[in-house]
């Protein structure tokens, strides 16, 4: 190692820079994921709109939402112990003694803190909309906050802080200090409060209180393990604080990575420049094919990593889409919504035609709702250069047919006709599918495929020789979406007003999100996306490992030749 003119401190600095860059990038990704989840939490104010939404919910609860409002006590507030006319609902009083002890080694007095005591008090309080609450008996809408001391993130305002110097003990006090080696210096006291009228944003589970006349809501710790948070600020400021934290970690990651890369590049440049006069680079050739292979490996790894991230993001969004069956529960939720529509949901059900289904042209007793029939001719033409017959496909024809159909729950729908099918129209719940041919992902079942060989006589052979072309075969195929097949549709769900409030319609979303019809159940569709993401991940890791191994071996051989005696 003494032959290597590289300062070990430089290598340590470069390694530390890259290590800190990776650490900061990991913290940035964690904060970014936390911010993404935070942006997806619905935010409400404790007003009449929130009350109506909660009352219309099936279980009279929202599992996890954010509520922003002003603090108002349900009864008498807490009065500050030190500041007059200062009231709150949460109070923390801390007391701590500052002592000094004699250090016989350094011959000095060293300080320490001891006897710290903290008392916490809280009174029941609620969150109210600005100007919408004076007392619990006024009939206004409010959100009670349950167990605020169990919540995280509640930074209280400091309303009082004072340090009292210890009284001098005189001659007797000095004698005691000399004997014990300790002396009291000061006493620190502070008071923090969540004041009445302060803005608070709470994150948790919201339930409707049955014993409060149906007008009070309660914010409590979620049952699914998600954090119960109370922050003494508004929702936008809380988001801005998280965004600034994420930006800070991102800046630190980029800065450390740039410093490490710059120092490493400068070190390698100086190393090669120093030995350029010592030995010619022609004595240490690097095969260009190796460089091309390494570059290709890293390029394929980066491309596979990109596809993996895209597929992973699709999978994440897919898992966040609410999935329902076309049953009474979905109908009640849709009726309870404000606009009688869900912008984007997934519905899984069985295919049933609204009237007469489509019959297969080739397979008897085979019915469906979407049909594609394709016809294609296979020709050969004479290639005068190679003196052979080359094949090609031409005259491809495809006809599409569809009939109106719906998605129904298993066992929740009966056939209206013995051969045609259809809804019975007696109070069944179903979801109509609008314009299925416009949807993506609809892979139909192939029910028929046949290839007919062409036959010709002497006249056809003469025409083939003159034209240089001949018909070889004719292929025909039929694909269908069969009656009774399981389909999962992703789109906008609306309630049809002219169908007695019993019929829902699945259509292309208005916000630009994809309209998808997948001929499989929801779990299989998610599993397919998951396996696709895993495949791209494996390719990214494999290509990166190959490129790294070859690059490391090439650099090792290069340095070995460079420093050989």
Structural commentary:
The structure is a single chain. The protein has 565 residues and is α+β, with helices and mostly antiparallel strands. The protein has 3 domains: 1-40 and 235-278; 62-233, no CATH class; 323-520, no CATH class. It contains 8 helices and 24 strands. The strands form 4 sheets. It has a 5-stranded mixed barrel. β1, α2 (48-56) and β2 (61-73) form a beta-alpha-beta unit. α1 runs antiparallel to α4. The chain is flat, with a radius of gyration of 37 Å. The protein starts with 7 loop residues before the first helix and ends with a helix.
- Rg over CA atoms, rounded to whole Å, is 37 Å
Q: What's the rounded overall pLDDT mean?
A: 80
Put simply, the count of helices is 8
* Total E-strand runs: 24
How are the strands of the largest sheet arranged? Answer: 2-6-7-11-10
């Amino acid at each position: 190692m003494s032959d290597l003119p590289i300062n070990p401190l430089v290598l340590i600095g470069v390694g530390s820079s890259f290590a800190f860059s990776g650490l900061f990038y990991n913290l940035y990704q964690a904060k970014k994921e936390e911010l993404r989840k935070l942006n997806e939490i619905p935010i409400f104010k404790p007003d009449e709109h929130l009350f109506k939404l909660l009352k219309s919910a099936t279980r009279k609860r929202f599992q996890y939402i954010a509520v922003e409002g002003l603090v108002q006590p349900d009864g008498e507030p807490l009065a500050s112990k030190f500041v007059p006319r200062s009231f709150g609902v949460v109070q923390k009083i801390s007391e701590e003694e500052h002592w000094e002890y004699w250090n016989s080694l350094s011959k000095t007095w060293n300080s320490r803190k001891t006897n710290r005591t903290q008392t916490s008090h809280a009174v029941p309080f609620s969150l109210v909309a600005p100007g919408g609450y004076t007392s619990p008996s006024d009939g206004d809408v409010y959100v009670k906050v349950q167990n605020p001391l169990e919540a995280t993130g509640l930074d209280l305002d400091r309303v009082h802080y004072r340090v009292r110097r210890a009284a001098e003990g005189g001659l007797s006090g000095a004698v005691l200090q000399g004997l014990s080696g300790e002396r009291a210096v000061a006493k620190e006291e502070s008071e923090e409060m969540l004041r009445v009228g302060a803005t608070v944003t709470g994150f948790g589970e919201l339930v409707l209180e049955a014993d409060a006349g149906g007008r009070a809501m309660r914010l409590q710790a979620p049952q699914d393990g998600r954090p119960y948070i109370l922050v003494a600020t508004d929702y936008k400021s809380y988001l801005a604080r998280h965004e600034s934290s994420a930006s800070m970690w991102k800046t630190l990651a980029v800065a450390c990575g740039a410093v490490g890369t710059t120092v490493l590049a400068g070190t390698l440049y100086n190393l090669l420049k120093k030995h350029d006069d010592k030995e010619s680079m022609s004595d240490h050739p690097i095969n260009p094919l190796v460089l091309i292979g390494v570059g290709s490996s890293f390029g394929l790894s980066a491309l596979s990593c990109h596809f993996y991230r895209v597929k992973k993001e699709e999978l994440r969004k897919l898992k966040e889409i609410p999935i329902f069956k076309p049953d009474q529960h979905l109908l009640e939720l849709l009726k309870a919504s404000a606009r009688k529509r869900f912008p984007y949901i997934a519905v899984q059900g069985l295919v049933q035609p609204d009237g007469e289904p489509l019959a297969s042209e080739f397979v008897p007793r085979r019915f469906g709702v979407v049909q594609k029939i394709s016809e294609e001719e296979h020709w050969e033409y004479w290639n005068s250069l190679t003196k052979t017959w080359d094949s090609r496909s031409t005259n491809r024809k495809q006809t599409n047919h569809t009939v109106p159909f719906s998605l129904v729950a298993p066992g929740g729908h009966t056939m209206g006709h013995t051969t045609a099918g259809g809804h019975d129209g007696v109070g069944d719940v179903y979801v109509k599918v609008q314009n299925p041919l416009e949807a993506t992902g609809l892979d139909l079942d192939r029910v028929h495929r046949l290839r007919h060989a062409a036959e010709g006589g002497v006249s056809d052979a003469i025409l083939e020789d003159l034209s240089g072309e001949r018909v070889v075969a004719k292929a025909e195929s039929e694909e269908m979406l069969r009656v009774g097949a399981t389909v999962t549709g992703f789109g906008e769900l609306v309630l049809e007003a002219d169908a007695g409030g019993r019929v829902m319609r699945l259509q292309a979303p208005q916000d630009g999100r994809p309209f998808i019809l997948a001929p499989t159940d929801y779990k299989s569709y998610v599993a397919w996306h998951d396996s696709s993401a895993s495949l791209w991940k494996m390719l990214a890791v494999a290509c990166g490992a190959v490129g790294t191994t070859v690059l490391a071996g090439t650099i090792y051989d290069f340095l070995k030749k460079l420093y050989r005696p």
